[in-house]
Amino acid sequence: MLEKRLRLWSGLVLAVYVIPHLTNHSLGIWSFDAMEGLRQVLSAWWRSPLGTVLLYGSFLTHFALALYSLWRRTTLRMPVWEAVQLAMGLLIVPLLAGHIIGTRVAATLLDIETTYPYVVTALWSKTYLTIKQPILLLVVWIHVAVGMHFWLRLKSWYPKAIPFLYPAAVLLPVLALLGYVRAGVATREWTDDPERLQIMFADWFSADPDTREFILGLEPVVVWWIVGLIAAVVLLRECRRLVSKRHGAFRVAYPSGKVVAATLGQTLLEAVRAAGVPHASVCGGRARCTTCRVRVGEGLEQLPKPSQLEQQALTRISAEPNVRLACQLCPTSDLLITPLLPPNATVERARRPGGVQGHEQRVAVMFIDLRGSTRLGEQRMPYDVVFILNQFFAEMSEALKLTDGHYAQFNGDGLMALYGLHSSVEQGCRAALQGAVQMCARLATLNRSLEQELDQPLRIGIGIHSGEAIVGTMGPPAAPILSAIGDNINIASRLEALTKEYQCSLVVSAVTAGAAGVDLSDFPSHNADVRGRSGPVAVYAIKDPADIRGLSLA
Q1: In the listed set 336, 351, 366, which residue is the last one of a domain according to the structure?
Q2: Which of the listed residues 351, 381, 413 is the one where a domain comes to its end?
Q3: Is there a contact between 25 and 35 (Cβ–Cβ < 8 Å)?
């Protein structure tokens, strides 16, 4: 958690420095005076004690975290964007070292002001410096742009902002390079005038020779130290890998039968990627998107508990205990996993739920169907049918709202509702029966109001059953709904169909009646054969739900 925050905030500080700095470069298209005007404003903050600590502290922290990221990885197999961002981040420091030494260090040690004319003239005086500066600019901007994009792309507002941000991200480095070239061309007349150069660099030429020699020799020392540090991390990482292989391994099995061997210490995401198995991870393995989540079968009990960071991400999506993030899970024994998203899952899938994502729960399920809707469509104009159906569904919706039912599915002339989502199944069963009473009462009222419009009253059939079901967000990614699937859902649907056979308004299972605590012994009972079920289901056929005793609304 601390690493994540340090990486984010240090990166944001550097982005806040880089964007105005490149904007300052772009003013070179017009004049040195314009560049100097903005530089003095920016320097007032960034060269203050607090600004200096914030800037260089963020710079060193971000570079240290890049080295730590390189060390922590057990495999270098990663998406291209991750590789680009990591490579650019490690290149920045050796490329930037000479620039910092020639500006900030020289200004501090020699007590001189490194103005834009001073710096640009120095850069254009030597060919390798002239070329290195644009390379540095592009490396820095690529690192910043990639980092900002893959941070912001998980934000819901970002897709709408891309048409504005993308042109800015392309234009800024282009304008900065044009400003650099235009300013460099303007210094040509100065470099051809030795007297003017002597005046411009008078402070440098008059400085203590030992100090000048120290500054000139500092860049190669810093660069070699940095290169050596990176090489040491790579070497130690390889040594750790060899040692880890001796201390044990674990195997990751897939339902298809594929098995991946991995070394202890690897995250599950690193293990499968090292084996060349594609696996979704939109955020790059930082527990921000949850697209790498897997359902764990065998081996769940032996897994370490989720870290605080992983648990927060899992809680955000209401994940079941057997769902873990592959980017955070470090297995210590064999396990069986099922990835919950395809390997090519996009950022849109990270932003919204899709497919079936549910949990087992005991609920009461109600199916409602409007009888004779086909005949109604044959006898009336389409707009008249829509008018009647809209009023019908409005009344059914109000009945659900009044009895705490959840509208789960719509199928043209009927609907499915769930009860007990936020209460016990017993309360849900009772509320479902109360909902049936309300629906029939409201339908009677609607029939009276439409008496002149209808040849015969509207009738409905209601089936209610209860039991275990998979409840969760499901459906197409663009329009997910909270619904339920399972054998008990199918039974409720079959009970609704039985209302035609039993010529009644409501068929309710005995299991549901018992859970609701109501006595339905006065109503006809049946042992119904339900298609897809091996044994019969005990049910009650009720012509008018209002006749059920002891079922008044609280």
Answers
A1: 351
A2: 351
A3: yes
Interstrand relation of 293-296 and 249-253 (parallel, antiparallel or unpaired): unpaired
Position 447 in a domain: yes
**b/e map of 433-471 (b: 16 or more CB within 10 Å)?**
bbbbbbbbebbeebeeeeeeebeeebebbbbbbbbebbb
513 contact partners, CB below 8 Å, separation of at least 6: 429, 433, 520, 540
DSSP alpha helix (H) spans, 101-157: 106-110, 116-123, 127-152
| Whether residues 450 and 483 fall in one domain | yes
CATH of the domain at 444: 3.30.70.1230
CA 510 to each of CA 213, 513, 516, 524, 527: distance values in angstroms, whole numbers, following the listed order: 95, 5, 10, 11, 10
Q: What is the CATH number of the domain that holds 6?
A: 1.20.1300
Burial of 118 (0-12, 13-18, 19+ CB in 10 A): buried
Count of the separate structural domains present in the chain: 3
245 lies in some domain: no
Q: Is residue 552 part of a domain?
A: no
What letter represents residue 180's amino acid? Y
Evaluate whether residue 553 is within a structural domain.
no
Instruction: Tell me: do 440 and 294 sit in the same domain.
Output: no
Q: Which domain CATH number covers 336?
A: 3.10.20.30
Output b/e per residue, 231-248; b: 16+ Cβ within 10 A. eebeeeeeeeeeebeeee
What SS3 state is found at 363?
A: strand
Question: What tens-digit pLDDT sequence spans the chain (554 residues)?
Answer: 677 788 889 999 999 999 999 999 999 999 989 999 999 999 999 999 999 999 999 999 999 988 888 887 777 777 787 888 888 988 998 999 989 998 888 888 888 888 888 888 888 888 888 999 999 999 999 999 988 988 887 777 888 888 999 999 999 999 999 999 999 888 877 766 777 777 778 778 888 888 888 988 888 899 999 999 999 988 888 887 777 666 667 888 887 778 888 777 788 888 888 888 888 888 777 777 888 888 888 888 888 888 888 888 888 777 778 889 988 888 888 888 888 877 777 665 555 544 445 677 899 999 999 887 666 655 666 767 778 888 888 999 999 999 999 988 877 778 999 999 889 999 999 999 999 999 999 999 998 888 877 778 889 999 999 998 888 777 665 566 778 888 889 899 999 999 999 999 999 999 999 999 999 999 999 998 877 676 889 999 999 999 998 776 65
CA atoms within 13 A on the CB side of 56: 13
Residue 506 is part of which domain span? 357-547
What's the N-to-C CA distance of the chain in angstroms? Answer: 47
Judge if 194 and 254 occupy the same domain: no
496: nearest Cα among 394, 411, 387: 411
390 and 438, same domain (yes or no): yes
Domain identity same for 186 and 275: no
Minimal CA–CA distance to 522: which of 552, 549, 495? 549
